[in-house]
Hints:
The structure holds 2 protein chains of 2 kinds.
Chain A: E1 3-5, E2 10-15, E3 18-23, H1 25-31, E4 34-38, E5 45-46, E6 51-57, E7 61-65, E8 70-75, H2 78-81, H3 85-88, E9 97-101, H4 113-121
Antiparallel strand pairs in A: 1-2, 2-3, 3-9, 4-6, 5-8, 6-7, 8-9
Chain B: H1 10-15, E1 19-23, E2 26-31, H2 35-45, E3 47-51, E4 56-62, H3 67-75, E5 90-96, E6 102-110, E7 120-124, H4 129-139, E8 144-148, E9 153-159, H5 163-168, E10 182-187, E11 195-200, E12 209-215, H6 216-226, E13 232-234, H7 237-246, H8 284-293, E14 297-304, E15 315-317, E16 323-333, E17 338-346, E18 355-360, E19 363-370
Parallel strand pairs in B: 3-13
Antiparallel strand pairs in B: 1-2, 3-9, 4-7, 4-8, 5-6, 6-7, 9-12, 10-11, 11-12, 14-17, 14-19, 15-16, 15-18, 16-17, 18-19
Helix pairs in contact in B: 2-7
Amino acid sequence: MSVYFTEDHEWVSVDGDIGTIGISAYAAKALGDVVFVELPDVGAEFDKGDEAAVVELVKAASEVYAPIAGEVTEVNGALEDEPAKVNEDPSGAGWFMKIKVADKDELDGLMNADAYKTYCDGL
Amino acid sequence: MTQLKKTALHQFHVDSGAKMVEFAGYDMPVQYPMGVMGEHLHTREKAGLFDVSHMGQCFIAADDGTFETAAKALEKLVPASIQDLEPGQQRYSQLLNKDGGILDDLMISRLGLKGHTHQLYLVVNAGCKVADYKHIKKHLPKGVNLSIKDDTLSLIALQGPRASDVLGCLNEAVEDLVFMTHTDLQLAGTLDEPLYAHISRSGYTGEDGYEISAKHDDMIRLVEHLMTYDDVEIIGLGARDSLRMEAGLCLYGHDIDTTTNPIEAGLIWSIQKHRREGGDYLGAKAVEETIKNKPKRKLVGILPEGRAPAREHTEIQDMDGKTIGEITSGGFGPTVGGPVAMGYVSRKFSKAGTPVQLIVRGKARPASVVKMPFAPHQYYRG
């Protein structure tokens, strides 16, 4: 199972037709303490680049964009009570949502882990 | 692009790993590696050190050398009582326009040191200070002068329950100051070389603590020294904002501005009784009318249910979906452990306990009007 990254610091890992989406460790660190995550409703459909979730910090809010198109099949309800999971384990327990991937070809436009690391080092 | 101004502590912030942002024309630290949440909680638990040198510091004194002349002149511009200030006493007030709108809020102190008690010392907001100085100069009578000290004096705040113990190591006299008093003294103690500072027991976080004014070079030395104490951490503007919001304190340009008057903003406590009727200051008529007829809207505390913060400009509705006001400050309160907000609502919805709804990203979320502060004030009153 491969993980792909966007320039906006979202990640998506794909297993069969299902993609799991979250924000990268780089983003979690840069944003600071997450106090609330606004997650979409199950059944919501996104195009690539649509606003899919909102991360609330003490002082500000930050949008999370859909890395690829799809329909939301599940959201991480645990974030409601423990938004800090996003900071503690952004690529694991801090996942945001699962989607039914609409078009796997869209993954080609994303970065793999190595490319993303190089991208972050250059920021 | 205009070059951003820097405080004397700018390099210190950069060296401390601060994230710098533009604020009121200055390049200021918004947060340090500890993060807003950690900085906020550290201030409530121990002591936070804030650079507030971007704020304006100025003095008013009369040529005739009397306090009375200077105080009378300033009373024409602010609703607070100035003439009855004792040496070393400090008051919070507002500069008003002729309609009672708030041009700025400020701290006014009568100096306490013998030979200086005829002088008034003012601290005004960074974003307003140029306009404030112009306004004050325009309205001061001949023979009363404003002297601006932004180029020579730095200003810091040391806030939190350990502030008194820490600063007491440099001069134990600071431990006896009570909230809203002010003194000039020498700090020495554990410092290598002594320095002189104006010190007031005040701040804008709801905590016990001090604001300290000193010459730029002395301040750099003082800050570096204070940072050697385990209890002290440097804190950015991000946590300063969440702290003052939990303390229910108004922020200029957000909760108060030229379109709001002190009565709507719940600041009647800052207008001493004998100035509430027949007051002779700019805006007095409008303020008195608002007192008499009661304000149409009031600034209230809003506690959202759940965890979603409601930010500034969020619409406030009654339970029938009718717009009744707007959030003016809102975010997450680390001490409260949840979202907190302030905003204006029509007076009939201003009673604590009134249920309201907040429109956050198009969704109505339940909230209620509550008494402020959200976190109890810890001022030292002796």
